[in-house]
Design brief:
With 119 residues, this protein is of the alpha+beta class. It is built from four helices and five strands. This is Holo-[acyl-carrier-protein] synthase. InterPro entries: 4-PPantetheinyl_Trfase_dom, 4-PPantetheinyl_Trfase_dom_sf, ACPS, P-Pant_transferase_sf, Ppantetheine-prot_Trfase_dom.
Length: 119
């Protein structure tokens, strides 16, 4: 059963500007594991990666219904990949389906949160 759906879009240039002015934003948004992936990327790909993860986490918060803030932080949400490369978010009560896309100007994400059977 579907618990929630979230969608978010981020301007790549906004993330690039933010990263230049506040390099610590990567540590605020990304978990330790995500930060390791981020640190080995080239400059352009870093911005796309950060923008995509930001969009996923915002979309997830919308799907859960609480937003980023008091109940949920960026550090509470980690995007991992299956062996195939497909991204998802690990959660004990939900299957969290994730789709991320990029263009030259935008990164967008859609998240579908589905209750696990028997939970």
């Amino acid at each position: 059963m579907i618990h929630g759906i979230g969608l978010d879009i981020v301007e790549i240039e906004r993330i690039a500007t933010l990263l230049k002015r506040q390099p610590k934003i990567a540590r605020r948004v990304l978990t330790a594991s995500e930060l390791k992936q981020f640190n080995v990327l080239g400059e352009k790909r870093k911005i796309e990666f950060l923008a995509g993860r930001f969009a996923v986490k915002e979309a997830y918060a919308k799907a859960i219904g609480c937003g980023i803030g008091r109940e949920l932080s960026f550090q509470d949400i980690e995007i991992v990949k299956e062996a195939s490369g497909r991204p998802y978010i690990r959660h004990p009560k939900y299957h969290v389906h994730v789709s991320i896309t990029h263009t030259k100007e935008y990164a967008a994400a859609q998240v579908v949160v589905e209750k696990k059977a028997g939970v």
